[in-house]
Amino acid sequence: MEKIDTELTRMLNIKYPIIMAPMFLVSNAAMTIEAVKAGITGTIPALNYRTDKEFRKALTEIKESVGGPFGINLIVNKSNYRLEEQLKTCVEYEVDFIITSLGSPRKVIEACRKKGIKVFCDVTEETYAKKVEDLGADALIAVNSGAGGHAGPMPADELIPLLKATCNIPVISAGGVATGQELLNVLALDACGVSMGSPFIASEEAGVSQEYKQAIVDYGAKDIIMTDRLSGTPCTVINTPYVQEIGTKQNWLESILNKNKGLKKYAKMLTFYKGMKSLEKAAFSATYKTLWCAGPSIEHVHAIRPVSEIVKTLIEEYRALSEEVS
């Protein structure tokens, strides 16, 4: 199919303006390779790899299989004690782009500029967006209220025009896209592309459990709720019977600790650690303790399919609708 021409497809030399979003525990080399083959691009959180050796092995596999373009997501706040090591490896392997989250991207932008590596920054509002633009970011990832995981407060039709009016760099919308109609709607708002994740959890190449994949098929938008029990920050999960059992709010002890100035930092670290361990167990094994991250775009997922088919269907829907409009 013919290329969709946008700032994103030109920047990354891809056929379609879609980034397979970096998903904690889910994204892997196999998914990224298939994304590139399908004419889009993929990203992986560096934190999905426990060691630099494992990280380098995955980068080598992708480079040898498809070359690129592909990206890596880096957490850039103080909680990521491995940031310097991860950044050094990304620069050494000359990944095509980096998506930064949760902090200042200054160091990342400075290190990547020398190698021509693009840096896209997660943003949820205009003040921070302007700051990262001034630091030299190449594009904004506009995380809206339809995103999975740590969603933003504003819907795409508010956030994208706001960022376009405030900044002069490309805007990529993150959240709420799983169909050709939704892709068409976002591009009509003057976004140059989309970052989509949840529909790809139900891909054959995803390394998560069959139960997690099937949950993406079986549940819908009405089943997505916010919880602050995973990371201390509101995060979207599927409202499974187990989530209903444990509740979505921190217990009285966690609440007290998070309000104590001296203990708040450590309480949040403990909450994050426990939450990530629970997510990891649920993602890779059959367990009644089902804590599965996802966004409302799972509404449109009806089967577990290869990455190539997910992309093909989306683009075919987009093409048909574009022809109707024109």
Question: Strand order of the main beta sheet, please?
Answer: 1-2-3-4-5-6-7-8
Strand content: 5-15%
User: What's the mean pLDDT score?
Assistant: 87
Secondary structure class reads alpha/beta
User: Per the principal axes of the C-alpha atoms, what is the gross shape?
Assistant: globular
**CATH-defined architecture of the largest domain:** Alpha-Beta Barrel
Calculate Rg over CA atoms. 19 Å
Output the number of helix runs: 14
Task: Report the helical percentage.
Answer: 40-55%
> Cα distance, first to last residue?
17 Å
| CATH class category label of the largest domain | Alpha Beta
- CATH topology category name of the largest domain: TIM Barrel
E-strand count: 10
CATH H-level superfamily title of the largest domain = Aldolase class I
Tell me the domain tally.
2
Low-confidence sequence ranges: 263-271
